[in-house]
Amino acid sequence: MSRPLYQVKAEFFKTLGHPVRIRVLELLSERDHHVSELLADLGIEPANLSQQLAVLRRAKLVVPRKDGTTVSYSLTSPSVAELLAVARGILTSVITGQMELLDDLQNSAASSDGPNSPETG
């Protein structure tokens, strides 16, 4: 019996639910990176990076390429970069909406604190 698509999607998004994995995918969205470059950018222990890359490999989001003693990684699909861009757009929209709400609340508070407000009465 196959799993429902919503469960598979939930597992996929769980894979994305770690800041290091997101940052790795962002870096790989720009270009392929050697493991040493990822380590330098992320500032984490090699064992931690190895663990996070293993999760991304199992999810088929990244693929390693060995060149002698050097290993580099790339995204398996440009759709991964597109997904990250869509997420950025959604977050930008949400944050913009929250900022507008905050402005409205601050303006409302400022007008209710004015000289004709019932509290000063």
UniProtKB/TrEMBL annotation:
<dbReference type="InterPro" id="IPR036390">
    <property type="entry name" value="WH_DNA-bd_sf"/>
</dbReference>
<keyword id="KW-0805">Transcription regulation</keyword>
<dbReference type="GO" id="GO:0003677">
    <property type="term" value="F:DNA binding"/>
</dbReference>
<dbReference type="InterPro" id="IPR051011">
    <property type="entry name" value="Metal_resp_trans_reg"/>
</dbReference>
<dbReference type="Pfam" id="PF01022">
    <property type="entry name" value="HTH_5"/>
</dbReference>
<dbReference type="InterPro" id="IPR036388">
    <property type="entry name" value="WH-like_DNA-bd_sf"/>
</dbReference>
<dbReference type="InterPro" id="IPR001845">
    <property type="entry name" value="HTH_ArsR_DNA-bd_dom"/>
</dbReference>
<dbReference type="GO" id="GO:0003700">
    <property type="term" value="F:DNA-binding transcription factor activity"/>
</dbReference>
<keyword id="KW-0804">Transcription</keyword>
<keyword id="KW-0238">DNA-binding</keyword>
<dbReference type="InterPro" id="IPR011991">
    <property type="entry name" value="ArsR-like_HTH"/>
</dbReference>
<feature type="domain" description="HTH arsR-type">
    <location>
        <begin position="1"/>
        <end position="95"/>
    </location>
</feature>
<protein>
    <submittedName>
        <fullName>Transcriptional regulator</fullName>
    </submittedName>
</protein>
